[in-house]
């Protein structure tokens, strides 16, 4: 039976994948099946409206170890579209699935729709400078990054949750799980961010941005140079093409030029406010509001105004 399948080891992302999957269901007339290796996540996924949830029973296994079993299952089920969460591990799984299914693979899709000859996929290329439109013949495997789509609204429909025994690849075993040490907050989940760049002269000057962030109840973020070159902020706060991708309600860019490598990580913010003394800085082309001025004067004024 043909179908549209979604899989991610990240529950929140798996839920987000159901939004494009349900849209495709309306066009293709095929059922949506959510796959999870976490039995505790099955009910949460079922509440978002797929037709079925299959719980992969393989014992403790990494997503990579599940890839061969997933490929076998998808072949037997006749999957036409497979949406995989675009995490590092998810992309590993997606590549394996595409190879076994002899399917086309598109990564980091922004939009999906049926097209003549297969599945139409839109992707952002060259750090946001171009949009690629591709058509993948069925079956098609596509990865989607977190927060590309919002999860669908809860559904009251009854959804079958069924166990699915699978055999994990014994060559890949989970021997220990250890939480990675992180400094500070998860900025990917922040709704307000104040991002800093090389316009700040010293590390101590970041207190100006921290003051504004406090007044806005926002978190601090930064460019790659501030995190990797200056080491003024943890690398987890670095936004850009090889750093974090964020989608906050408010993004205040202070003292950063707005190179495309940075903008690709924040371009989907709802409102971007730029503060820069160079009126020709690229950040102003992406900003909704801009202040041309010295951040050493502007930030204290803004912080004081917000405090009143």
TrEMBL record:
FAD binds at residues 198, 223-224, 255-262, 276. InterPro entries: DHS-like_NAD/FAD-binding_dom, ETF_a/b_N, ETF_a/FixB, ETF_asu_C, Rossmann-like_a/b/a_fold. Residues 4-174 form the Electron transfer flavoprotein alpha/beta-subunit N-terminal domain. SMART domains: ETF. GO terms for biological process: fatty acid beta-oxidation using acyl-CoA dehydrogenase. GO terms for molecular function: electron transfer activity; flavin adenine dinucleotide binding. It comes from the Bacteria. Its cofactor is FAD. Keywords: Electron transport, FAD, Flavoprotein, Transport. Belongs to the ETF alpha-subunit/FixB family. This is Protein FixB. It comes from Mesoterricola sediminis.
């Amino acid at each position: 039976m043909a179908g549209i399948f979604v899989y991610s080891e990240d529950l929140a992302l798996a839920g987000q994948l159901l939004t494009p999957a349900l849209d495709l269901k309306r066009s293709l007339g095929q059922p949506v099946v959510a796959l999870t290796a976490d039995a505790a996540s099955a009910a949460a996924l079922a509440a978002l409206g797929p037709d079925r949830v299959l719980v992969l029973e393989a014992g403790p296994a990494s997503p990579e170890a599940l890839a061969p079993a997933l490929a076998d299952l998808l072949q037997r089920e006749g999957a036409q579209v497979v949406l995989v969460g675009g995490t590092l591990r998810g992309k590993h799984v997606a590549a394996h699935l595409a190879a076994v299914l002899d399917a086309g693979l598109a990564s980091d899709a922004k939009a999906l729709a049926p097209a003549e000859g297969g599945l139409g996929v839109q992707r952002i290329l060259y750090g946001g400078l171009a949009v690629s439109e591709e058509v993948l013949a069925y079956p098609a495997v596509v990865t989607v990054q977190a927060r590309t789509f919002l999860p669908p609204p809860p559904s009251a429909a009854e959804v079958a949750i069924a166990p699915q025994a699978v055999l994990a690849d014994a060559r890949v075993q989970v021997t220990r799980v250890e939480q990675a040490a992180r400094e500070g907050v998860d900025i990917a989940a922040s709704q307000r961010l104040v991002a800093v760049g090389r316009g700040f002269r010293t590390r101590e000057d970041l207190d100006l941005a921290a003051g504004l962030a406090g007044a806005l109840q926002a978190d601090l973020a930064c460019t790659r140079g501030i995190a990797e070159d200056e080491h003024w902020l943890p690398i987890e706060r670095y936004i850009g093409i090889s750093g974090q991708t964020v989608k906050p309600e408010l993004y205040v860019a202070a003292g950063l030029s707005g190179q495309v490598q940075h903008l690709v990580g924040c371009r989907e913010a709802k409102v971007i406010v730029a503060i820069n003394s160079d009126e020709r800085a690229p950040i102003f082309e992406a900003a909704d509001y801009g202040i041309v001025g010295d951040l050493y004067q502007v930030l204290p004024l803004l912080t004081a105004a917000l405090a009143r």
